Amino acid sequence: MPFGLEKPGGDGDRAPGEVDYRLARQASIAEFRKGRLARHEVCDAHPELLRAARNVGEESSQSCPICEDEKLALVTYVFGTRMPAHGRCVTTPKELQRLARSSGERVAYVVEVCTSCCWHHLTRTFPLTAGRSPRSAPSG
Q1: Which long-range contacts link 61-64 to residues 24+ away (Cβ below 8 Å)?
Q2: Which residues, listed in sequence order, are joined to residue 95 by a DSSP beta bridge?
Q3: Does residue 12 register a pLDDT over 90?
Q4: What's the DSSP call for residue 132?
Q5: Are 139 and 62 in contact (CB under 8 A)?
Q6: Torsion over CA of 38, 53, 19 and 8, rounded to 10 degrees?
Q7: pTM across the whole model
Q8: For residues 122 and 74, is the Cβ–Cβ distance under 8 A?
Q9: Quick check: 62 and 115 in contact, CB under 8 A?
């Protein structure tokens, strides 16, 4: 796995402080499929998120759960001390490792995005701490 952001599911694999949003994701998809959520309510990705997904996102092994037309892209943002207020979109594994080694508290957010229908969902968050390199990431 090139960027190290995708991993098979399994609760035993989670790092301390990691939050997995698979249950919320499944609930959202189920509500859409039951007709309780309209497509425009679940397919509303921000243009900047779509741009990041197209240009620096890592292709996932999963197809979009809404349109089923294409593979999802995974986009990672990092927020924390000495970071811009809008966070930083991480574009390479080296950059993620560098941010993990630097001092200060930081949290990575991995978002799955469909550039075809604009579906997006936060898949997981995990802390980046100095002295501990980031593990392979998100949900399956």
Answers
A1: 61/6, 61/140, 62/112, 62/140, 64/114, 64/116, 64/117, 64/119
A2: none
A3: no
A4: B
A5: no
A6: 100
A7: 0.82
A8: no
A9: no
Q: Are strands 106-113 and 71-80 parallel, antiparallel or unpaired?
A: antiparallel
CA distance 97 to 8: 21
pLDDT, one tens digit per residue, over 14-53 is 667 899 999 999 999 999 999 999 999 999 999 999 999 9
Q: Identify the bridge partners of residue 90 per DSSP, sorted by sequence position.
A: 76
The residue written with tokens 């594994």 in the block is 93
Q: What was the pLDDT predicted at 131?
A: 53
Using the structure block, give the residue that is written with the tokens 């294409």: 70
Q: Nearest Cα to 42, choosing from 19, 26, 60?
A: 26
The percentage of residues in the chain with a pLDDT greater than 90, rounded to a whole number, is 68
Which H or E run contains 102? none
Residue type at 138 in one-letter notation: P
Q: Per this entry, what is the length of the chain?
A: 140
CA distance 68 to 64: 5
